[in-house]
Amino acid sequence: MIHIVFNEAEIGLMQKVQELDETLAGEVIQVKDDYAVGPVADIYETEGYQQRRDWWKQLLENSPYKEQTDLVDDKLTVHNLIKQLQENEQEEAWIWMGQNQHDVCGYYWLMPQLREFQGRVMVLYMNNLPFINEKGQIFYPSWLSEIQPSEFLKAKKLARPVTLSEFEVDPDEWDKLTQENAMVRILEGGKKIAGKEADFYDTEILKNITGDWQKATRVLQNTLHRMKVKTGDVFLMWRIKSLIGEGKIIAEGDINKDWKSFDIKLAGASKQTTETPAETETTL
Description:
There is one protein chain. This protein is α/β, with parallel strands linked by helices. The chain has 2 domains: 2-178, no CATH class; 200-280, Arc Repressor Mutant, subunit A. It is 36% helix and 17% strand. It has a 5-stranded mixed sheet with strand order 2-1-3-4-7, sandwiched between helices. The chain has a 3-stranded antiparallel sheet with strand order 10-12-11. Strands 5-6 form a two-stranded antiparallel ribbon. The protein is globular and about 60 Å long. The two termini are 36 Å apart. The model is unreliable at 272-284 (pLDDT under 50).
């Protein structure tokens, strides 16, 4: 079997799971792009694909991941996956996804490309399912990485083939989203994805900015730590810079250098006396 995940941390996680259960042994591959943000119009065509790459290239400039664009080639990943499934008719693809828009949008992007393998594509969607955490407490994970490896031994029983109906309906759902081409997509429950404007996360960012100067990276990490509906740090930094351009945030330093090169505070805000808790700050 070939395991498909949508986050880098889950590659090592699945390898640990395989050490506990040899029946799950198989290659682990990752769909790397975050299809929950950014342009997706004509995503399967050369022009649409290039537009998306150009957008990511703009966001990644001066980031810690500047070279990441050339490392993300999901088209090649799927090409190799299809080749393996064609060459070995006994091979199965297992799609693992958590209850979050990142995984579900990745699933939607993947689905139309695997239609010919209906019956050999399995899905394990951790949707509203209870698990036991390290403290022995019941919780409902949003991300696979929140689940202990031992808990996956029970989760594998949930594997089921993607139905013929799903292969018909889900690509249509994704097609609607690509035509809408919203800049942000969020999960509203089940596999329901809704499009939102580019400024969807701005309120979360502004909650973590005061009238005092703070490192932009500190605001970024505090926002990532506290927000309930998650997105990536690259997208959030793009929005921080957009808010600077709109005059809602004031910057000190050079925003066109690396992320550590500038401080920010609210525009027109009086000086705050309450500092943001330092323990949430991490260094990029």
